[in-house]
Design brief:
carbon-sulfur lyase activity, three-stranded antiparallel β-sheet, eight-stranded mixed β-sheet, single chain, 11 strands, lyase, binds zinc ion, about 160 residues
Amino acid sequence: MAGRPKMRPRRCGAVQLSFPTEAPGLKSTFVCHCSDCRKITASMFASNFTIDNRHLRHIRGQDNLKTFAQSHTIGSGQTMTNYFCGTCGTLMYRVGAAYPGYSVLRIGTVDDFELHETKLRPRLEQYTERRVRWLKPVDGLRQFRGMAFRSQSKL
Ligand SMILES: [Zn+2]
Ligand SMILES: [Zn+2]
């Protein structure tokens, strides 16, 4: 697909991003069960995709993003900065100091739900040892204990 899908918080629209759905701009799609992803989503896991920053466009609202950064619950031990919509509080993306040049976006914030099933469908699960026992592995996804991406080169 040549078009660039858009993502924005539902019912707000103050911030809008666009991104590619194929390599090289799209680096990875994954489910993460780490304790930080539970806290940041207020759920049991996060469904993420990673974009090379050179391919990420802020259509509007970049100055409306608020940030929160910390390192003590991050698997890499390095700072992770969260970018939230300043109007509705939706987490738009995260940037990890361990992965310079990349942003981790949320599949659930993408407007086109068809993409959740296709190009943005997760390809692996990580931190599976932290997965709640009432969830099963997703069919067909590679399973990783701990971080699947131990360095930028493995993104
Ligand atoms: Zn995580
Ligand atoms: Zn918003």
